[in-house]
Amino acid sequence: MSILIKNGRIITAVDDYVADIFIDGESVTHIGKDLKLHADRTFDATGKLVIPGGIDPHTHMDMPFGGTTSADDFDTGTVAAAHGGTTTIIDFAIQAKGQSTLDGLEVWHGKAEGKTTIDYGFHMIVTDMAVDRLGEMEKLAEAGVTSYKLFMAYPGVLYVDDGTLYRTFRRAGENRTRICMHAENGIVIDEIVREAVEAGHKDPIWHARTRPTRMEAEGVHRAIAIAEVAKVPLYIVHLSSHDALEQVRLGRARGVDVQAETCPQYLTLDESWYEKPNFEGAKWVMTPALREKWNQASLWQGLKFGDLSAVATDHCPFCFNGQKELGRDSFTKIPNGAPGVENRVSILYDAGVRAGRISINRWVELTSTSAAKTFGLFPKKGTVAVGSDADVVIFDPNETRVVSVDDPRTHHMRVDYSAYEGHTVTGWAETVISRGRVIVHKSQLETRGGGRFVKRARVGDLLR
Ligand code: URP
Ligand code: ZN
Ligand code: ZN
């Protein structure tokens, strides 16, 4: 199968020019002006942007959590991602306590294999790293799992202590792999939650009121300090607040290899969403919580100037009916997480590029290239170049839609609400190509399935 994309404005993290792209099989083989090549299929991209497929480095498909399981599996979640212009996700395999991480990885391979429409990789969530287990980490790296997520939050569930953090960080550094950190002091937060519950508080807003930004900042500070001593590159996931970002800046200023991602929800929504009537605020119960609105300006500044290096979704959807409702009697029982894998590329274009907060090249960098470089996918993925995978999106920068769970052009996630319901967004993916297969065209799914597991390279290595 060959594809010719004519006259598109090709945008990468550094380029901006009009040309044609020829795709032969799974890769881009030619880029040039007025290519005279015959293709099985031709798209006229005049007036459109042509960008590398989005890479979302933080999703949770089919994840058991909070007494239930996230509503999208690897089939529905990757179809939704594709509709939104994302052609690669990095999801999280989980090691159950006492289980080998290698066995945990097998479980997640079983959930994903043969089901995805786009390519995918895994980070490994470590919940238990006794000394005699450390050798598993090299085997994971050899299997293409070159990053780990550890949690300071969720005591009794995913939380690990500082000794486990240090031990895992150290070996990860020796293996030239990367640590992803959920940085929030869950031990203190649980005490604050206990006080709130004892005082009779039940409503969703208390999810935010019991999670001070200072406790996120403390977690970020501690993770950076441990990473500095353990000599491992660190990546703070879902950073949500000015206080936490300040700690990233301090760490980087003293030379620590720390990066951080934020998410569209922290850039565009705020804690007032929790006060919606009829328990509706539960839809946005996620961890970290949505913050006071003034934090958003600081996060945008971090994205613009480089202290935040990527925008991921933390897509972890739970239906309002039957799942979020588990917490009607207490905010502590609301499953934590929200949908977004379909919305990321467009929201960042609309609220970022169109609003003048970031450049068009930075948009591509934040939604694709940076994650590819950080997580061992570059240059196979994350750019439009000869020899790279033909993960290419034709993006219409002038199309305006109102996001709604009821509009089949804006919502394909298997969840009964949209976190961005009613938002007017300009800029939508029109044609989405994954390794040379047209998977979405004009909101129609043309190909289901065919996604592959990608073995990611180690820190500093290229993936060819
Ligand atoms: O609320 C969230 N973020 N749920 C998913 C798990 C996590 O902490 O990333
Ligand atoms: Zn997390
Ligand atoms: Zn997450």
Strand content: 15-25%
CATH superfamily of the domain at 53-374: Metal-dependent hydrolases
End-to-end separation: 21 Å
Any idea what the shape is? Answer: globular
Specify Rg, calculated over alpha carbons: 21 Å
Question: What is the CATH level 1 assignment of the domain at 53-374?
Answer: Alpha Beta
Q: Provide the low-confidence segments as ranges.
A: none
User: In the CATH scheme, what's the topology name of the domain at 53-374?
Assistant: TIM Barrel
At CATH level 2, the architecture of the domain at 53-374 is Alpha-Beta Barrel
| Number of helical segments with 4 or more residues | 12
Main sheet overview: 9 strands, mixed
Q: Can you walk through the features of this model?
A:
The protein contains 12 helices and 19 strands. It has a domain at 53-374: Metal-dependent hydrolases (TIM Barrel, Alpha-Beta Barrel). The strands form 3 sheets. Strands 1, 2, 3, 4, 5, 16, 17, 18 and 19 form a 9-stranded mixed beta sheet that branches. It has helices at 74-83, 101-112, 136-142, 162-174, 186-198, 205-209, 213-230, 242-253, 264-268, 295-305, 344-354, 360-374, and strands spanning 2-11, 16-24, 27-32, 41-44, 49-52, 54-59, 64-65, 68-69, 86-94, 119-125, 147-151, 178-182, 234-236, 258-262, 310-311, 392-402, 424-434, 437-441, 444-445. A hairpin with a 2-residue loop joins strand 2 and strand 3. The protein is α/β, with parallel strands linked by helices and 464 residues long. It starts with a strand and ends in a 19-residue tail after the last strand.
